[in-house]
Design goal:
The protein is 43% helix and 0% strand. The longest helix has 16 residues, at 10-25. It is elongated, with a radius of gyration of 23 Å. The N and C termini lie far apart (66 Å). The protein is mainly α.
Length: 127
Protein backbone atom coordinates (compact mmCIF):
# COMPACT_ATOMS: atom_id res chain seq x y z
CA UNK A 1 0.00 0.00 0.00
CA UNK A 2 1.39 3.37 -1.00
CA UNK A 3 1.37 6.04 1.66
CA UNK A 4 1.93 9.48 0.24
CA UNK A 5 1.10 12.96 1.35
CA UNK A 6 -2.08 13.03 -0.74
CA UNK A 7 -5.00 14.55 1.18
CA UNK A 8 -7.62 12.96 -1.07
CA UNK A 9 -8.49 9.36 -1.68
CA UNK A 10 -8.12 7.84 -5.13
CA UNK A 11 -11.89 7.87 -5.58
CA UNK A 12 -12.23 11.55 -4.67
CA UNK A 13 -9.34 12.40 -6.99
CA UNK A 14 -11.01 10.59 -9.91
CA UNK A 15 -14.31 12.30 -9.14
CA UNK A 16 -12.66 15.74 -9.24
CA UNK A 17 -10.95 14.93 -12.55
CA UNK A 18 -14.30 13.94 -14.01
CA UNK A 19 -15.91 17.20 -12.84
CA UNK A 20 -13.16 19.34 -14.35
CA UNK A 21 -12.99 17.46 -17.63
CA UNK A 22 -15.99 19.24 -19.16
CA UNK A 23 -14.71 22.66 -18.08
CA UNK A 24 -11.34 22.04 -19.69
CA UNK A 25 -12.92 20.94 -23.00
CA UNK A 26 -15.45 23.77 -23.12
CA UNK A 27 -13.15 26.18 -24.94
CA UNK A 28 -14.10 29.10 -22.72
CA UNK A 29 -12.30 30.58 -19.71
CA UNK A 30 -12.44 28.53 -16.54
CA UNK A 31 -11.82 31.43 -14.17
CA UNK A 32 -14.56 32.89 -12.02
CA UNK A 33 -13.26 36.43 -12.44
CA UNK A 34 -12.71 37.82 -15.93
CA UNK A 35 -9.62 39.81 -14.96
CA UNK A 36 -7.75 36.55 -14.19
CA UNK A 37 -7.83 35.50 -17.87
CA UNK A 38 -4.73 36.23 -19.96
CA UNK A 39 -5.08 38.92 -22.60
CA UNK A 40 -4.87 37.92 -26.25
CA UNK A 41 -2.01 39.22 -28.36
CA UNK A 42 -2.36 42.68 -29.87
CA UNK A 43 -2.37 43.31 -33.61
CA UNK A 44 0.86 45.27 -33.44
CA UNK A 45 2.80 42.74 -31.34
CA UNK A 46 5.94 41.51 -33.08
CA UNK A 47 5.72 37.97 -34.42
CA UNK A 48 8.77 36.62 -32.62
CA UNK A 49 8.09 32.92 -32.37
CA UNK A 50 5.15 32.36 -34.65
CA UNK A 51 5.87 34.80 -37.45
CA UNK A 52 5.46 33.79 -41.07
CA UNK A 53 8.38 32.80 -43.25
CA UNK A 54 9.53 35.86 -45.14
CA UNK A 55 9.18 35.76 -48.96
CA UNK A 56 12.29 35.43 -51.10
CA UNK A 57 14.03 38.74 -51.65
CA UNK A 58 12.70 40.46 -48.52
CA UNK A 59 15.01 42.45 -46.28
CA UNK A 60 16.35 40.20 -43.54
CA UNK A 61 14.86 37.19 -45.31
CA UNK A 62 17.98 35.04 -44.81
CA UNK A 63 17.91 35.64 -41.06
CA UNK A 64 14.17 34.96 -40.84
CA UNK A 65 14.53 31.76 -42.85
CA UNK A 66 17.49 30.61 -40.75
CA UNK A 67 15.48 31.25 -37.58
CA UNK A 68 12.44 29.33 -38.86
CA UNK A 69 14.54 26.40 -40.05
CA UNK A 70 16.45 26.25 -36.78
CA UNK A 71 13.23 26.40 -34.81
CA UNK A 72 11.73 23.47 -36.69
CA UNK A 73 14.83 21.35 -37.29
CA UNK A 74 16.87 21.75 -34.13
CA UNK A 75 20.19 19.88 -34.13
CA UNK A 76 18.99 16.37 -34.86
CA UNK A 77 19.14 15.98 -38.66
CA UNK A 78 22.61 17.44 -39.22
CA UNK A 79 24.72 16.65 -41.20
CA UNK A 80 22.10 15.78 -43.78
CA UNK A 81 21.18 15.78 -47.42
CA UNK A 82 18.03 17.32 -48.90
CA UNK A 83 15.94 14.17 -48.42
CA UNK A 84 16.74 13.91 -44.71
CA UNK A 85 15.93 17.59 -44.18
CA UNK A 86 12.61 17.22 -45.98
CA UNK A 87 11.79 14.17 -43.88
CA UNK A 88 12.65 16.03 -40.65
CA UNK A 89 10.51 19.02 -41.67
CA UNK A 90 7.56 16.75 -42.45
CA UNK A 91 7.97 15.00 -39.09
CA UNK A 92 7.67 18.26 -37.12
CA UNK A 93 4.80 19.54 -39.30
CA UNK A 94 6.75 22.54 -40.56
CA UNK A 95 4.94 25.18 -42.64
CA UNK A 96 4.50 24.34 -46.32
CA UNK A 97 6.65 27.30 -47.33
CA UNK A 98 9.66 25.85 -45.48
CA UNK A 99 9.15 22.45 -47.08
CA UNK A 100 8.88 24.05 -50.54
CA UNK A 101 12.12 25.95 -49.97
CA UNK A 102 13.93 22.84 -48.69
CA UNK A 103 12.80 20.96 -51.81
CA UNK A 104 14.77 23.50 -53.89
CA UNK A 105 18.06 22.50 -52.23
CA UNK A 106 20.66 20.66 -54.34
CA UNK A 107 20.37 16.89 -53.94
CA UNK A 108 24.09 16.07 -54.00
CA UNK A 109 25.21 18.39 -51.20
CA UNK A 110 25.58 17.57 -47.50
CA UNK A 111 24.50 20.36 -45.15
CA UNK A 112 26.11 20.57 -41.71
CA UNK A 113 24.25 23.58 -40.30
CA UNK A 114 21.13 25.64 -40.85
CA UNK A 115 23.34 28.44 -42.18
CA UNK A 116 24.60 26.11 -44.92
CA UNK A 117 20.99 25.27 -45.81
CA UNK A 118 20.17 28.97 -46.18
CA UNK A 119 23.34 29.52 -48.27
CA UNK A 120 22.37 26.52 -50.40
CA UNK A 121 19.20 28.40 -51.31
CA UNK A 122 21.35 31.31 -52.52
CA UNK A 123 20.60 33.60 -49.58
CA UNK A 124 23.21 35.39 -47.53
CA UNK A 125 22.71 37.39 -44.32
CA UNK A 126 22.76 41.15 -44.58
CA UNK A 127 25.44 42.92 -42.59
Amino acid sequence: MQRGSNRLSVHKDDEMKHELQELMRSGRPTRAEEWYDPEPGADDDPAVTTGPVAPLGAVGEAEALRFELARHLGRTPFPARRGALLHALHQVHAPDRLIELAAELPEDRVFRTVQEVVAGLGLHPTT
